[in-house]
Amino acid sequence: MDQKIKFIIIGLAAVLVISLLFNWQMLTVNQKLIKERDALAKDNAELGEKFNAAQKANQRLNEQIASLNQDKDKLSRNLEYFQKKYESVNAAREKLAEELKAFKEGTQAAPATAEAPPTGDAYWARIFSEKKGLELQLENLQSELKKVNINNEQLTREKNALELEAKSLNREKEDLNRQFAFMQKQLDYNKKMIDAISLELVGEKNDKIQIQANLKSINNDNTVLRRQLRSLSSRKVGLEKKLAEAEAKNKDLENRFTEMDILLKDKMLQLDRLNKQMAMDKAGGKSQGGSVVLPPIVVRPQAEIAAMDSGDSSLGPGKVLAVNKDNNFVIIDLGQDAGVKLGDVFKVYNQENRQVGVVEVIEARKSISACDIRKETAPIKVSDTIR
Predict the structure, then answer these.
(1) The dihedral of CA 279, 282, 286, 292: what is its sign?
(2) Which residues partner with 346 through β-bridges?
(3) Is 251 exposed, middle or buried (0-12, 13-18, 19+ CB in 10 A)?
(4) pLDDT digits (tens, 9 = 90+) for 137-165
(5) Which long-range contacts (C-beta less than 8 Å, at least 24 apart) are formed by 84-92?
(6) What are the φ and ψ backbone dihedral angles of 210, each rounded to 5 degrees?
(7) Are 335 and 369 in contact (CB under 8 A)?
(8) What is the Cα–Cα distance from 166 to 159, expressed in whole angstroms?
(9) Rounded distance, CA 234 to CA 239, Å?
């Protein structure tokens, strides 16, 4: 019983240690997954910020490209205007040159009778001043046209650079979109994993609660077993005391058996001497002045003889304490205190409650008696019942 309780305690301790190790491992895995989730959330936030910044930069670049396109259109319109003005001035200049040439040719080839063109310093001064003005306007228009061309080329270069930068930003945007989609998938996967682990943790928590309940039940059972152990220990002490008492009684009975054996041996010796004396008396006799002493003759009634053969007795029940096959007698635990007297007859029953013999009391003491075996259908053994 003590060994069984030890095995139960060792098993409970092993279950508790395994449960604690499993819970610690699951807690470590949960903390690791939470850290990974936080890191992924942080990376996702950074990518979102980068994505928003790239969108804003792309928007600004689009606005700049739109503004540059407007400036380009405006410059293109100015260029067309100046081009038309340059053409008109150039046409006027050519017209003046032709008029001047025609005037010179006319002055040389005209007949004397023809009407002379208008002459005078004022006329030529006006002509030359208009020419100078047209030349200045033409130079200004050319310089402005050069500036417009330079600005147009610069705007074209800036537009190309902005387009390249916009393409680069678009590629970065696409990369960020792909990274964002990948991170979103990773977050979804991690979320599913966290949900699954949460379910497992809930299951483990329920299992832990169940184990704690089982452990509590086992502790209660252990407490009951300890109480039973203490009760069994007390009973063991009581049984040990009873065993000691039984051993003392057994020793006392052995001493009594020894005394009874000695007494029976003495009686047997006396019977042998009496038998020898009777044999001698029968053989020789005493013819002079003496009498022959015979043992008392006991005459039993017919009913008593029948009762003796049947083994009926109102005493008992008792137990057979010892069996002496050599001398054909047994020792029983009934004596004079129980009302046993010389000549009483008892039936003997075995452990299966079957009659195995009949005995007759030949010597009665205070608590035990010696009985002669009158009838034996089966071997009489110690602890057989007598009635």
Answers:
(1) positive
(2) 359
(3) exposed
(4) 778 877 877 887 888 788 888 888 888 88
(5) 85/141, 86/138, 86/141, 86/142, 86/145, 89/134, 89/137, 89/138, 89/141, 90/138, 92/134
(6) -65, -40
(7) yes
(8) 10
(9) 8
